[in-house]
Amino acid sequence: xxxxxxxxxxxxxxxxxxxxxxxxxxxxxxxxxxxxxxxxxxxxxxxxxxxxxxxxxxxxxxxxxxxxxxxxxxxxxxxxxxxxxxxxxxxxxxxxxxxxxxxxxxx
Length: 107
Prior knowledge:
0% of the residues lie in helices and 46% in strands. It is mostly beta strands. It has one domain (20-106): Jelly Rolls, CATH 2.60.120.10. A five-stranded antiparallel sheet has the order 1-2-8-3-6, with no helix packed on it. It has a three-stranded antiparallel sheet with strand order 5-4-7, with no helix packed on it. The protein starts with 19 loop residues before the first strand and ends with a strand.
């Protein structure tokens, strides 16, 4: 089977109202996904607390991640962070224009 060419920046039009999660590659111990955000944030009072580490890079847009200890990271294109397993965090801002395009590796 020949390789299939795709593009991380080729987004559906119109974009859905909810965040768009696309699994690009998965094995039993690793998952790579593209996430497209257009203003979505973590609901007030909720935290992500994932059982595995997550490495995430923001390819386009602007975003803010906040940790339970109060530390906040403002991300722009090319910024990346490793979030260890069970480190509680939330997304407090994502730009609408341009949309945020994330690449996340869970493992």
